[in-house]
Amino acid sequence: MDERTEPAVALCPSAELVEKGIAHVFEVLHFREPARAFVLRFDGRLVAYLNRCLHVPTEMDWQYGEFLDSGKEFILCSTHGAAYEPQTGRCAGGPCGRGKLTAMDVEERGGQVYWYPSRDTRPAFAD
Predict the structure, then answer these.
(1) pLDDT value at position 127?
(2) What DSSP character marks residue 100?
(3) pTM of the full predicted structure?
(4) I need a labelling partner for 12 at 20 to 30 A (CA). Which of 20, 49, 101, 104 fits?
């Protein structure tokens, strides 16, 4: 990730994110447009992305906060089945081409999950 220049935004307690479980979804402004992002625990670490499929810019969760396929191996777009590798966000199959999801910079410390906004993706409650 880029050098952190923005203060961290507290998202949720660490205990809320169970391994390969329900993601924590949060509101952002991506290029000043309202959007959602999500953070989930996968293979013992946090991964976070903009909730926007590369194929068609639509939200991907099956139900609110549910992003993983039935085998809990891939982030799967519920609309057209594009599959993404959770560790990298890269397209693993389906209509997402050779791209990857927009990553969010998150960290876990002191029992809390934090997100670091970027130049392009800001807190929805800012400005």
Answers:
(1) 46
(2) B
(3) 0.93
(4) 101
